[in-house]
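Progress against Task 2.4 (sequence-to-structure conversion) is shown through the following example record, which the project officer requested during the mid-term review.
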Amino acid sequence: MENGDFESGTTAWKPGTVWDSSKAQIAAVGDDVHGGKTALKVSGRASTDAGVVQSLNGKVAKGENYTGSMWVKSTEDAVFNITICSGNGSGCGQIATAAVKSGAWSEVTGSAELSGNGDYESPYLVVETSWNSGKTGDFLVDDVMLNGSASEPIVRPEGTAKAAKQIGESNPIIDYWYGADPWAMEYDGRVYVYTTGDATSVNADGSLTYDYEYDSKGNIKDNSFSSVKTINVLSTADMVNWRNEGYIRVAGEQGVAKWASHSWAPAVTHKTIDGKEKFFLYFANGGSGIGVLTSDSPVGPWHDERGELLIKGGTQAAQGVVWLFDPAVFTDDDGTGYLYYGGGVPEGQREHPNTARVIQLGDDMISTVGDAKPIDAPAMFEDSGIAKIGDTYYYSYCTNFSHDKVIDGHTIGYGNIAYMTSKNPMGPFTYQGEIMQNPSKYFDVGGNNHHAMVRLGDSWYMVYHAQTVAKELTQGGNLDKARGYRNTHVDPITINEDGSIADIPMTKKGLDQVRKLDAYPDGGISASTIAWDSGIQDAYDKSSGVRVVDLTADNSEGQKLSNINDGEWTSLSQVDFGEQGAKSITVHAAGKAGGRIEVRLDGTDTEPVAVVDIPAGDGGVYNDYTAELSGVNGVHNVFFTFRGAQDDDSNPELFDITGYVFTANATNPDPDPDPTPGDGDQGKDDAGKDDGKDDQDGDQQPSHRLPSTGTAVLGLSGAVVALAVAGVGLTVWRKRRA
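Structure tokens generated for the chain above:
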């Protein structure tokens, strides 16, 4: 790059865009500079991509890393970018970006791999404002620099990051991996949360890789969402212990919807059709449209009955919508379904983008009825949400980052959640206000905002995402910066007497547990049910940190706890052992290097109440390993610490676990004499995916349990297994999926 300090006037620079110099004017000025004697003034801009450009004479290459910086003084608040564009129009790659306040010199700096659709055979450096932001005011620029291949590989320290969720907190709901764009649905006493599978990709055999995106130098790069073809499912009956139900392979050759390329921002509902409960999962195929899958269970297996997009471009339902994504779905009391979607900010319409839509769904929930109706959501950006509270419909959304501060008399922030109300699910909706600020206010790490509302019992909750795990890793030296990898949180919603919604703070504390966890559910307690854990220990070391992964590549047999190394741990919150207590614990595990599980109550450093030895093995054969318990009664937090050989410096994987079985003393009464659906009673199975109905969703569950044994057994693989625990009864198991 030449003349970055403009001491040679406008030499090597031209105004406008790469393709049209008439869209701006430039002039060297000396009355207001950042450094030296001269700066450059850019005025008369006709579009956001119009600014000042310079040919790089072919001196950059796609896949290489570049660092850019400049100083800008603008006449308006705006986001400024340093961009490299192909002269032939094939694409652009952003190198640096920053928000600039009007009237003061501000630095814009950053590093990135040159990526995108461009071939960069005739590259140009472009100084511009954020695309479609509407910011076309004049600005001064000085001291522009671009260093080729300047991003050296990140130094990979050992790191000291703590778990992102501390004991006693309930946010994020899981911290051993990522999950974004949450949707929540209550069914049969459980809350099911569906998330975009951040940092997860599908391999050719259908198995998953849990890892970040990397540039050509091997550095972790910003989350582009380009590899996301999965949706994760989590569930809970108590709002603290979350069971990981596994990942749905949605898009691509290994997915259910093979025609789809992405699976972003899920939304799920259920409806009784012909006397049978059916579930419908709507997802965004990138920004190109909305697809839908069906199932007989909230956790699958899922089917692609429609075989194509439900909402797609070129139709009335897409007219005027910039981004066909971020669905929200609602089934009304009369069984009628409604789909909400859309987003984006057309040029010059940042106060009233008019890009949100609602459309009625057909009786089958995989077709539409009539035309889509616009929702005039002030400062709309993305992320539709919908809830019915009483007889009022609440439409909510994320505001954009470029609108005027006051719109129609309402002060509206940037990247916040706002809401509108109506007495009709199709609107019109009336703006009410904001209810949740951007994550940057609470966690000092920003990004977009995405949410959903859900009711359990008499309480309403807000699920949302924030980059809290990535932030913890960054603070501990395990990651250079958050880079857009997100986790799901949940906090309470307060509905005021007048029907308005009170401000909802984002917190790490989260929720109090709404009911105890039964120690003795039919089917036992899945190892994928976790309240707190030791977390991801090092972003650069895939062998560190526990993971919940699929037992099989096609996710047909449920989940296991894997990637277990010495010193890592997981836990359960408020487990109710009853007055008489438990006499033993059985762990269903497959040994690898082998080791032991130390079982503790109420803390990670208390004396173990049991030690379960797991011998070495090939990791493919599961057996049951039992240890006696004494004095374990009442309600306790339970911690499982995993230990290997003390002299093994290679830190191998120790074993995989599918679940835990606590055996009650024979005279132990039911700790929950008035069972609530979904908490492990009435045939519920906290070990897997039983929804309390027919065996249709892929778990193993006892076909008969002798009532006198007080024994629960979990997650055994194989067609038929019989097990007697401590000589007190027999539980016969059958494989539930053909």
